[in-house]
Specification:
With 263 residues, the chain is α/β, with parallel strands linked by helices. It has eight helices and 15 strands. The chain is 34% helix and 22% strand. The strands form four sheets. A five-stranded parallel β-sheet has the order 4-3-5-6-7, sandwiched between helices. A four-stranded antiparallel β-sheet has the order 9-10-11-12, with helices on one face. It has a three-stranded antiparallel β-sheet with strand order 2-1-8. Helix 4 (120-128) packs parallel to helix 8 (225-243) and helix 6 (188-199) crosses helix 8 (225-243). It is globular.
Length: 263
């Protein structure tokens, strides 16, 4: 039996025409014990129609909002695990103001930006504004599914629910981060990174290990390097701006670590 999903690619032209090869091997069916609720924010319903059935076959229930205002209403009243945000023709002000608004309503799920802009600077900007991942259009659907699952996965771990290290405290069930009891916003990926580094304090963690941990990616490590660098930079900045301390350190050519000692 062939247990592989066929590859689908979303493409675009100058008139914003979307096409996709959404072939699926009907001889393969998998039962999912939990559905990952995902919200697509896109001004046009066409992308939603292209993706809905393909994602559902992978255990991902896709919902659609055509404006950021309706998206925020969704987030307030429904349990959404991941957001797919295409700011094209939606945001009239700062492209990523919406991401900041999700933090204001205590949304703790993942955010993937879908963009026609393939520039690396735009990717870094999206991550700096709070996105967990950036996926240029056109994209392979299987990669989108992998990104969503990576952000939605629930790790079965015996680690303590509350992690405390000096002034830093992470509440894992609520995905909240505190510095001296002051709430500091972290994206889902930033939270995962910091929690993993604190749980392994005193040990230098390689970039390879961190990428596997956060994105479950073992082969295409290089493609996540920019994302990892941006998330680490954001964590450092948020901690330093709050207490002016350098907890997270870079070991050049190797990875990152948190010293197992008071600063």
């Amino acid at each position: 039996m062939n247990n592989e999903f066929s590859t689908g690619t979303i493409s675009t032209n100058q008139t914003y025409s979307l096409t996709a090869n959404l072939l699926f091997n009907n001889s393969y069916y998998q039962i999912y014990t939990s559905i990952m609720n995902t919200l697509l924010i896109d001004f046009d319903v066409e992308l939603f129609n292209k993706l809905e059935s393909k994602l559902l076959n992978s255990g991902i229930k896709l919902k659609h909002a055509s404006t950021t205002e309706s998206a925020l209403m969704f987030l307030k009243h429904e349990n959404i695990n991941c957001i797919l945000y295409n700011p094209f023709k939606i945001s009239q002000d700062n492209t990523y103001d919406f991401i900041k608004k999700t933090a204001e309503i205590n949304y703790t799920g993942g955010i993937v930006v879908l963009s026609y802009n393939r520039n690396v600077d735009e990717q870094i900007r999206a991550l700096n504004e709070g996105a967990d991942a950036f996926l240029p259009i056109p994209f392979v659907i299987d990669e989108l599914i992998a990104r969503i699952k990576s952000l939605c996965k629930i790790r079965n771990t015996s680690a303590k629910d509350i992690i405390i290290f000096n002034e830093l405290k992470l509440d894992k069930p609520e995905r909240r981060f505190y510095i001296n009891d002051k709430l500091v916003f972290l994206t889902k990926t930033e939270f995962e990174l910091l929690a993993y580094l604190i749980e392994n304090k005193g040990k230098v963690i390689s970039r390879h290990e961190l990428i596997i941990h956060c994105w479950n990616e073992k082969k295409n490590i290089d493609k996540y390097s920019v994302a990892l660098y941006s998330h680490v930079k954001n964590i450092k900045k948020k901690i330093y701006e709050t207490i002016e301390k350098e907890y997270l350190e870079t070991v050049y050519g190797v990875g990152y670590w948190i010293r197992d000692s008071k600063i």
